[in-house]
Design goal:
The protein is of the alpha+beta class. The protein has ten helices and nine strands. About 35% of the residues lie in helices and about 20% in strands. Strands 1, 2, 3, 4, 5, 6, 7, 8 and 9 form a nine-stranded antiparallel beta sheet that branches. The longest helix has 19 residues.
Amino acid sequence: MNVLGHLNEAMAYIEKNLDGDIDVQYAAQIACCSEYHFRRMFSFLSGMSLGEYIRNRRLAEAALVLSNTDEKVIDVALQFGYESPDAFSKAFRAMHGITPMQVRKSDVSIQSFTPMTFQLNIKGGHKMDYRIIEKGAFNIIGVSGRIPLIYNGANSHTADVWKKLRQEDLLVLMEYSVVEPKGILNVYANYEDKTVEGTTLDYFVGIVADAILPERLMERYNVLTVEASTWAVFTSVGKHPDAAQETWARIADTWFPSSDYEMTGAPELMWYESYDFGKFDFKTEIWLPVRKANNAAV
């Protein structure tokens, strides 16, 4: 499957419709994947959210229209998706540093933001240790909290969730951890917007269980039900958390574009061999719910 080719066809559709309605779901169909996967892959490959990209392209094109024509600001605002001149002016100033009316002065400069395309950039071979497994429905049982999304470095907010677990809780949960992946897991679910750093998600610390624990125990814990799925399981070995984050990057920019799979948006699991984070050869498993991508072009 020509993944990059399909992505670029989707980008061409977006570019063609900057001054009209952009149907992101249709763009994802052109890219032969789900809207969730399309948005996620775009953010991984480009370093920004799809919404941010479209907004910047529209504002760049709007500046060109204003500087080269006599069209009214309100008409240009509506043309590029803004419902009011005030909203347009605020966004325009944030990008260009001037108001829309000031664009027509001879001594001002505007920001350019060129169209984006994706190309294969071969940086060298990397071995990726992964396996594909099928797993029935199960429950995550443990504690949870709402935390901000942080792409790079340790997320200190996870400690607030860990503090909810007492030593006796860990012993109880480990006793009922009898199905793979065994042990205490980190689980990431219900993202507000997975493409934007600083937005929030549900973070669980707990175990995988194929049944609900006894009622006397369940009063203590939160439960997250995960549907049956295909899982791509990647192994990372190295300094924590750098090695796992580097593996995440290779999954996004190398493995997914060359595979027949896409992300589903279901909860993601992170398994650690231990909690001795100072080890130089720290082992992590990243469990991603996947499905076969739609290979039929639109």
